[in-house]
Amino acid sequence: MTRKNSFIFVLMLLLGGGIFYFSMRHVDSKAFIQSIHTANWWWLLVALGAMIVYLLLEAVVVKIFVDTEHEKISWRAAIRVPLVEQLGNGITPFATGGQPMQMIALAQAGIDIGRSGSILLMKFVVYQGMIVINFVIALLIGFNYIADKLNQMALLVIIGFLIHFAVIVTLLLVMYWPAFTDRLTTLILAPVKWFNPKKHEQWLATTREKIDNFHAESYRMSRRWGAMGKAIGVTFVQLALYYAIPYFILLALGQTHASFIFVMSLHILIVMVISLFPIPGGAGGAEASFSMLFSSFLPNAATLVLAMLIWRLITYYFGMFAGIIAFNVSARKRTK
């Protein structure tokens, strides 16, 4: 990682520690330790296993989109992609660093940058589409609970949904409307012309060539119905495992009467709210949202803070640490 990224990573660890310390200010330390001792660690391993399988399934999606009769990516290189994505998402506002980090991982595996851009956008569209579908289901199940107890959070949930939906529409326009992409590129590169007209022409010509390759690759990939169907199915299972993690944590802390579907629905709504916070990882907002929505499931403040801590360790910090390891492991080149 660069020095700047390392600094942000350490800063997020300190911020996470500060949030945990703040959450513990009114919690009985003896009750907190007792909650740790009485926790069912087998269910916590299931929760961690769900996160690991979630990441591995994303690697499967990468393999589905990359592998053709002409080119294949190794499993080692494919697994690096979601791991470095976790690192990029975790240290940048609005998780904007995930896509560039994946691009780097694919480039290190020998995938052409134009093709990797199409692959990542197609993968992102499928992922966002599944998020929106899951959100609609969760909205039907859990929205009344939020609307009754947390009116302000209900508004954030709706705003988060609209943003995700707008992202999908914009990406589809970029992928399948060449004129729109060309105009957007021209607009973005316009300031370069003010300072260096020659450089502007070179960049514009190169960018347009890459865009033409990108649109051709996007169209070709969209015609691979079998691959698209597999990617959609794998992504649906992948997200289901991720959304189920809080349920396994509740089971570990002795809450066996919670509804599996309802807990998953609440987690979907939390993830939607987190996406609105500009701080990397939604720090602060994620913990507050979890505490507000799951407080009624747990017997005391100590158990609630423990659940929140475990949830963040598994869904956020585990991915970042795994991403650091993956980023420093060399990728094997693709096979043709």
UniProtKB/TrEMBL annotation:
- What GO molecular function terms would the record report? phosphatidylglycerol lysyltransferase activity
Instruction: Name the enzyme's class.
Output: transferase
- Coiled coil location: none
Give the transmembrane region(s): 7-24, 44-66, 124-147, 153-177, 231-253, 259-278, 314-331
Q: Name one Pfam family in it.
A: LPG_synthase_TM
Subcellular location per the Swiss-Prot or TrEMBL entry: Cell membrane
User: Which reactions appear under catalytic activity for this entry?
Assistant: L-lysyl-tRNA(Lys) + a 1,2-diacyl-sn-glycero-3-phospho-(1'-sn-glycerol) = a 1,2-diacyl-sn-glycero-3-phospho-1'-(3'-O-L-lysyl)-sn-glycerol + tRNA(Lys)
Write down any Gene Ontology CC term.
Answer: plasma membrane
Keywords from UniProt, A to Z, are: Antibiotic resistance, Cell membrane, Lipid metabolism, Membrane, Transferase, Transmembrane, Transmembrane helix
Q: Which InterPro entries match?
A: L-PG_synthase/AglD
Which GO terms are recorded in the biological process aspect for this UniProt protein?
A: lipid metabolic process; response to antibiotic
- Provide the E.C. number(s) assigned to this enzyme: 2.3.2.3
Q: Does the keyword Transmembrane apply?
A: yes
Q: Does the keyword Zinc apply?
A: no
User: What is its membrane topology?
Assistant: Multi-pass membrane protein
Could you tell me what this protein does?
Catalyzes the transfer of a lysyl group from L-lysyl-tRNA(Lys) to membrane-bound phosphatidylglycerol (PG), which produces lysylphosphatidylglycerol (LPG), a major component of the bacterial membrane with a positive net charge. LPG synthesis contributes to bacterial virulence as it is involved in the resistance mechanism against cationic antimicrobial peptides (CAMP) produces by the host's immune system (defensins, cathelicidins) and by the competing microorganisms.
NCBIfam families cross-referenced by the UniProt entry? flippase-like domain (TIGR00374)
Q: Which family does it belong to?
A: Belongs to the LPG synthase family.
Per its record, how is this protein called by name?
Answer: Phosphatidylglycerol lysyltransferase
Q: Which organism is it from?
A: Weissella diestrammenae
Query: Gene name?
Result: mprF
